[in-house]
Amino acid sequence: VRVVVAEDQLLTREGILHVLRAADVEVVGEAADAARLMALVATERPDAAVLDIRMPPTHTDEGLVAAARIRRDHPDVAVLIVSQYVEAGFVLRLLEEGGGGVGYLLKDRILDPATVIGSLQRVVAGECVVDPYIVSRLLSRERRTDPLAVLSAREREVLENVAEGLTNAEIARRLYIAERTVELHTKQVFAKLGLAEDQRTNRRVMAVLTYLRAAT
Amino acid sequence: MDVICLAAAAALLVVGAAAAVVQRWRPAVAALVLGLCLPPVVLASALDPAAATLSVATAALPVLVPIAAWGCTKPRPSVVLALVAGLVAGPLRGLVYDPYYDLSCLTRCPHNPYAVHPLGPGVSSALLTVGLAAPVAVTWAAVTGRDRLTLGLLALAAWLAVAPGDREVLAVTLAGLVLLVRVGVDVARGFDDRARVAELADALRSADDLDATLGRAAGDPRLVVTYWLDDEKTFVLSDGSLTTGTRAGLSATDIRGPDGLVARFLHAPGTDTRALADAVAGSARIALENGRLRARVQRQARRLQASRLRIVTDADAERRRLERDLHDGAQQHLLALGLELRRVADSAHDPDEQAVLDASLATTQQVLDGLREISHGFYPSTLDQVGLGSALESVADRSPVPISIRAVPETRLPVDVERAIYLLVFRLASVADGPLEVRISRGAADAEVRVRGAGVPDGVLLDTFAVLGGSVVSHSDGSVPVVRATLPLASGLAVLP
Predict the structure, then answer these.
(1) In 10 A of CB B443, how many CB atoms?
(2) How far away is chain A from the Cα of B265, in angstroms, using its nearest Cα?
(3) pLDDT tens, B36-67?
(4) Shortest Cα distance, chain A CAs vs residue B226, angstroms
(5) Which of A35-49, A193-207, B376-390 shows the lowest mean pLDDT across its residues?
(6) Between B42 and A125, residue with greater pLDDT
(7) Is the pLDDT of residue A93 over 60?
């Protein structure tokens, strides 16, 4: 796998590079800002770009803007955002603008190399990745009445995995059940929550995340 | 001609007395002097055929026109010169000139009994030339001055008086009439001023807007009152804003009290502010002092507002700095530390060593989690990018109590307004002990936030909303407490950086 990395904080960038190289990922370019990143993506044609959201010059949402541009101009380049923000709004924006092949991880996942590498492989394969911490936050949000009470324990587990961006096949592997069973569970979950099922991964994830945010 | 002149003299005496009543001293003196001098001059020969009277009258003649000029206009140098020339030349000519020997009036002119040493027509003509200084000076004043018509007529009178040919009576009559009209107008204006000042005193008793009231009294709508604040050594306007005490195109009149400068009127250059100044120094003094007190209070209110603005802005900047420092500094170094631990742990062979390193890694992860929770909410760093609705959902994600965001405007609100609302919900959520319901609505000029179930807002919130020109109040809807906040959409203050 060939990747370019964009991160303006030196120590964090070194950390990301270390994790990637340790897993034999080929880093073909490093950037400290979005403009340099875009140039690298255009010339190096990597499989994925790993980037931060906050970058020069304005230190606001450069990374998200760059992610959307990469996915639009180079659909074969996957994007993995590594951000310090636990912000579901950013995740939804990324999924909305980036389609499939995008992922959102929190920065401290760098300390957990397996997750980083696994997520990178998933986005390269065209799947979505949402940091489990963000999903668990949404699931455990304080509500007056728990809208998820209608779900069985297994269904709830499936829902959590769907929200993290996993495909049915992946969920089946993770839960040691048949893919067909996962399909049945997801159908049940979507029906119980009143959600329209969409085959596109990013749409499916967005529907679940939006539901979890709005449910009170 | 004699009758007209006598009538003018009588009228001058009356008008002069009236001028004295309204304290127009210079016109009063001029009118009284002229009124007293005209009859003897005109009637000299008729009343007393003695040549002596005629001599005195003739000697007084050159002075009368300059006196009229002095009464009509400000004592400018040329008019004073005319007065002096008349005072010198008239009597001196009376001493050395004997018309009896004058070839031009051989038949009509009697001896001048005061002529101590008739020097002949030459010297007399020389003195006449000095006397000519009067018409020349008055003419000059007429050409350069503002009262062209008045002074022009007086210049004509002066020329008539000294030019050959017996037109002295015509000359003094003309001068008398001009002065009469002039002083008459002055007196009328004086009475009008007194009436206006009397009205002013009435108006000031209930005046809210001193500037407009004084402006009306002075007939100058541009009149501005600036108050002197001695402790700050500065002028302020009635709304408490600072001013230099000058303004392009306006003249200044200082009003002084026993303790020094009180106020300064800025007014159109032609406005006569004497009566106003007298009034505010006397009867309307209390109104001016009240105005100054009000301006001082306004000024203090402004300074307090500015200081509150600074405190809120500084606090906000500080929150932002803290959030950035945590992200860019502490978090980054902790991550680096964690990576180092991970690297060592991966290559460790001793199980004990491995266990210690794993525990350290777990602790590092906990510190990172804690740091993230602390830094979030300090400052809504993602608000601008995700919008108010999404940012508030994030507050709800972390809140220990359920928060439902019921309504958020479709369109984005001004950035200051969004940040203030975020801060409101964030702070109310952090102290809430029951579920909250948030509704944000956008009106024509205001945004309104209703938070059902929230407790009493703290001082920081009150200050933040106040500096933006809004308000926060809490009341209760049945048994449910509600915090209601409003903010003008056009606060005009880029308060929160």
Answers:
(1) 11
(2) 51
(3) 888 877 776 666 656 666 666 667 777 777 78
(4) 46
(5) B376-390
(6) A125
(7) yes
The pTM assigned to this predicted structure is 0.65
Question: Which residues of chain A approach chain B closer than 8 Å at the C-beta?
Answer: 9, 11-12, 14-15, 18-19, 54, 60-61, 64, 84-90, 92-93, 107-108, 110-111, 113, 137-138, 141-144, 213, 216
C-beta atoms surrounding A92 within 10 Å:
21
Measured in angstroms, the CA of B398 and the nearest CA of chain A are apart by 7
Q: Is the peptide bond before B39 cis (omega within 30 degrees of 0)?
A: no
**Cβ pair B269, B252 in contact under 8 A:** no
Amino acid code (one letter) for B488 = P
H or E element, residue B440? strand B436-442
Please name every residue paired with B260 in a beta bridge, in sequence order, or none if there are none: B257
Residue B207 predicted with pLDDT over 70? no
CB pairs under 8 A between A and B: 90
Q: How far apart are CA B153 and CA B156, in angstroms?
A: 5
- Please answer yes or no on whether B435 and A89 come within 8 Å at the CB atom: no
CA separation, residue B231 to residues B228, B234, B254, B261, B298 (Å)? 9, 8, 18, 12, 15
Please, what is the end-to-end C-alpha distance for chain B in angstroms? 86
